[in-house]
Amino acid sequence: MSGSLAAPGSAGASPPQVEIAVVEGEHVVAGGRAQVRWHVQLRGAWRSVASVPGADRELLSPSPGTVWEARIRLRVPVGTRLAREESRPRRETRDALAHLEGARRGPARRVTRVEYTAGRDGRLARAAPSR
């Protein structure tokens, strides 16, 4: 895989690139489905890892309770930020009249976001949130 991805703050010489692999998927959990998605920060904008030019997506064999799972490999400059987002159904208790207050179009979700930085060895190290 090759590409011309620029690392944050790079000017002139490009930093070394490393290959990383992440797994996205959807799994059956209590109350619905949990979804895991990965994003990469390129040129100041967050985008799906699967949409990066040169990214290789491989569907994995689903295990019990797995709707789908895919391994995505891509090359990024050392120091590139990635974010893993996991969305799960939120357990909530509502009183008997709550439905009169407004219609909900699906279950409430809890999204957890953890950011990482690509290291020289291709491993992802947890990073402080950029927000």
Largest sheet: 8 strands, antiparallel
| SSE pattern | EEEEEEEE
Any idea how many domains? 1
Strand content: over 45%
Distance between the termini: 30 Å
Number of strands: 8
CATH domain fold name: Immunoglobulin-like
Task: Please provide a written account of the structure.
The structure is a single chain. It contains no helices and 8 strands. With 131 residues, it is mainly beta. The chain has one domain (17-91, 103-124): Immunoglobulin-like (Sandwich), CATH 2.60.40. Strands 1, 2, 3, 4, 5, 6, 7 and 8 form an 8-stranded antiparallel sheet that branches. A hairpin with a 5-residue loop joins strand 7 (109-118) and strand 8.
Write the layout of secondary structure elements.
Layout: E1 17-29, E2 32-42, E3 45-48, E4 56-59, E5 66-77, E6 81-89, E7 109-118, E8 124-126
Antiparallel strand pairs: 1-2, 1-5, 2-3, 2-6, 4-5, 6-7, 7-8
Primary descriptors:
131 residues; mainly beta
In short:
The chain has 131 residues and is mainly beta. The chain contains no helices and 8 strands.
